[in-house]
Amino acid sequence: MxxxxxxxxxxxxxTHLETLSLDQLEMLLAGVFLQLVDLAISTIRHDPSYPxxxxxxxxxxxxxxxxxxxxxxxxHKLAETGDVLSVNALGFAGLLLVKSEAELEVVKKESISxxxxxxxxxxxxxVQVEGTAREVPLAxx
Length: 141
Prior knowledge:
Number of strands: 5
Number of domains: 2
Strand order of the largest sheet: 1-3-2
Order of helices and strands: EHEEEEHHH
Low-confidence stretches: 127-141
Number of helices: 4
């Protein structure tokens, strides 16, 4: 399995979401989100050089997964040009916005992996959230 260059906490959603009531879906998604944020905060706490202030993270939600990615910075300074590249959740989904073809070439040289690791944090949890990727009935639902 290939490891990401940055910490990312993910939950694979059950395939039967459409069978849940709105209340059941809300309970599931809220519980999962809170577990993932707890892991992100724990990752942040393990980083002695994390900037003071409010913890920062990106969230990506698809029909199949929820990802919470703790991040240290909102921007990455490109080494070659000194230009500042904004990196948000779309960046962690593989979409970085560049201003020109020249900036695109600089981003390619620096590598997406290095850029995302630069704004993200090192992974300290080789943990999947309990219950991920299993087709089990939800307790109490």
